[in-house]
UniProtKB/TrEMBL annotation:
SUPFAM superfamilies in alphabetical order: Cation efflux protein cytoplasmic domain-like, Cation efflux protein transmembrane domain-like
Location relative to the cell: Membrane
Pfam families noted in UniProt: Cation_efflux (PF01545), ZT_dimer (PF16916)
Membrane topology field: Multi-pass membrane protein
Transmembrane regions: 20-44, 65-86, 98-119, 140-161, 167-184
Name this protein carries in UniProt: Cation diffusion facilitator family transporter
Organism of this sequence: Algoriphagus winogradskyi
Keyword presence, Transcription: no
Highest taxon listed in the record's lineage: Bacteria
Main location: membrane
Residue ranges of every copy of the Cation efflux protein cytoplasmic domain listed in the record: 198-274
This protein's UniProt keywords: Membrane, Transmembrane, Transmembrane helix, Transport
Length: 274
């Protein structure tokens, strides 16, 4: 958040004094990034709360809801940038200053590095909101690349090419909207309890077969809530076992799964006769 505040100030100052609306548009996105980061921080804090009487599956669903708000922020900022870029295109103005290119080069390196750092964290924690935050950094880097290209064309193209800077801002808008979809779609799947975790399903089935008494598995339903995965699993056992023996196997299986796969939350085992 501190980095985005500093970058927003740099972009606004460079855009105003360097006569570049693409940089100002970039600054607007950085301001939005600050607010979205605050939302992500709140979402991570709230979704990590333990289960309670009213929320037996925890508070993880708050995370994709926060992701939806981040997407709304991005769409609003994209619309603002597009409108202002259009106004600049129909209004004659001067070409940007050369020094803005050096500012943009530094911004591109910083934001792309930030993208890789946050994306690694999001994969490790299985966090959709952190993934959205990472794509914020990537979209910022791409909009800066677009601004760099637009300013370069405006500077070296001569008269009539001043609007290249503004068209670069419009390109940035298209990229931001594309990323909105990439962020929104998995978060929607999480809210709708989509069962789309083939790799994790295979891992669960493999671990299950190492538990004494488990002869196989049938249905395996997985739903994600925050950074945890809740599982409903049908386990096959010998049909003539007593209820007590089947109950014991189910507890052994649940304990084994939770120990081997730490990201699992609630695991419900249904015993089926083999």
């Amino acid at each position: 958040m501190l980095g985005n505040i500093a970058l927003a100030a740099i972009k606004f100052l460079a855009g105003i004094f360097g006569n570049s609306y693409a940089l100002i548009a970039d600054g607007i996105e950085s301001v939005v990034d600050v607010f979205s980061s605050i939302l992500v921080l709140f979402g991570l804090k709230y979704s990590s709360r333990p289960a309670d009487e009213n929320h037996p599956y925890g508070h993880g669903k708050a995370e994709p809801l926060i992701t939806f708000l981040v997407v709304v922020f991005l769409i609003v900022s994209a619309g603002t940038i597009a409108w202002q870029a259009y106004q600049h295109i129909i209004t004659p103005h001067q070409s940007p200053e050369t020094f803005t290119l050096f500012v943009l080069a530094g911004i591109i390196i910083w934001k792309e590095s930030s993208f890789h750092v946050v994306m690694r964290r999001s994969k490790r924690l299985k966090s959709s909101s952190l993934k959205a935050e990472a794509w914020h950094h990537r979209s910022d880097a791409i909009t800066s690349v677009a601004a760099f290209i637009g300013i370069t064309i405006a500077l070296f193209g001569g008269d009539g090419y001043e609007v290249a800077d503004d068209y670069a801002a419009l390109f940035a808008v298209a990229f931001i909207l594309f990323n909105c979809y990439k962020i929104f779609r998995p978060a929607l799947g999480e809210v709708m309890d989509e069962n789309n975790y083939e790799e994790l399903t295979e891992h669960i089935r493999t671990v299950s077969l190492t538990v004494p008494g488990v002869k196989g598995t049938e249905k395996c339903f997985i739903r994600k809530a925050g950074m945890e995965y809740h599982v409903d699993l049908h386990a096959l056992v010998i049909g003539d076992l007593t209820v007590t023996e089947g109950h014991k196997i189910s507890h052994l299986l649940k304990d084994k799964l939770c120990a081997e796969i730490p990201e699992l939350g609630n695991v419900l085992i249904h015993i089926e006769p083999f």
